[in-house]
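re: ur msg from earlier - yeah i can do the EPU complex, just paste it... oh wait u already did. ok heres what im feeding in:
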Amino acid sequence: MDAFQIQGGHTLSGEVIVSGAKNAALPILCACLLTDQPVTIKNVPRLRDINTCLRLLGSLGVQCFWLSENTLTLRAEQVAEPLAAYDLVKTMRASVLVLGPLVARFGEAVVSLPGGCAIGQRPVDQHIKGLQAMGAEISIEKGYIHAKSKRLKGCRIVTDMVTVTGTENLMMAACLADGVTVIENAAREPEVVDLANMLVAMGAKISGIGSDRLEITGVEKMRGVEYSVMPDRIEAGTFLCAVAACGGDIRLSNVDPKSMDATVEKLLEAGLSISAKGNSMAAKMKKRPKAVNLRTAPYPGLATDMQAQLMAVNCVAEGTSMVTETIFENRFMHVQELQRMGANITVEGNTAVIQGVARLSGATVMATDLRASAGLVIGGLTADGQTLVDRIYHLDRGYDGMELKLQALGADVKRVSQT
Ligand code: EPU
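and the outut:
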């Protein structure tokens, strides 16, 4: 198992080319199931989750080839058996994104329920309820969702809460349904918008893109497309947090600054100076950050996927801050590990109170989920002495070459093998 060995205390300077967004690329790859024609996807990040998604699509009979480092071509001419097996779904919950496209195009899908998750219960009841409203017959047998429908029918769906992959699954299903589907309380995350734009390029009829009310008029057939995945706003935000915590002067290229408003606002408040021009950003930090209160919320609010990294900044900030997590019920797993590095944090329900300390101290810590790992890496970069962040496979799920990008900024980070 790999770990990151970090010698903390270096300021960061240099440039990072941000990769394509994991959470846009995953639904976009699954959307290839909606057509029998080839689909070419550019700016695909090289991640463990992308490999899992390709294994899943491959197991369904989709032909998948890398044309170059970040370009994939996929063709779902036919599907052998519309089955997403537990082994793959349990390692990546986003596998549930094949459910909508499979039942819409092939009239049938058998998809494993994802099971437990480190950050919260994360049920998929809204995906199921939405498809049922569209006329799918759904049963749960032996841990699998069995969905059947000759042709889905357009209808009005109001989701109980804002759900990102729920909106994506239902939007993909509605593209091939008979009639008009309206999704109310839809997620407005930029990744949902990216998927919607790709679906439109494939011939889908969607209005209200970027709003909480999507109207989708079903079409008989969709076509192949060439599409480029949006830049990863969470990866970009993670590097901004790293420079806010460590100090320095960095430039990010291949970013979409508009998608990062809430994170940028918090980091400006923390004292980071940020400027954006076109698809690049520059960030400078000369002093210790100031503590900032934050509360996660669906887009355009502050992303829960930035919470752990911003908390790491608060750990070394001047002053006291409150961090409230409203999306997932158990997304504070990094707190105990940050405490092991000397952070002063107390948790009360879904709020953490952080009293900033001048320096963290290096320790061996364990990553528990993807964004928690990123928070611990930032902690290690600011700490006195050596930090070992263990179980870095979580990080590899969602960050493309993070240690290489940090090394290019002057950080002392090494990937080491732990036995
Ligand atoms: N929820 C339900 N029922 C549902 C669906 C969701 O109760 O049917 C609840 C969840 O338990 C959660 C809330 O609704 O409390 C929001 O969950 P959502 O469905 O929006 O999350 P998701 O679609 O499973 C995506 C990202 C996550 C990100 C969240 C929130 C992908 C592949 N994953 O998950 O990304 O944290 O939206 O923005 O897009 C990550 O990249 O590290 C990550 C976890």
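cool cool. The pocket of EPU is lined by residues 23, 26, 93-94, 120-127, 161, 163-166, 191, 303-305, 327-328, 370-371, 398 (CB under 6 Å). ping me if u need the other ligands too
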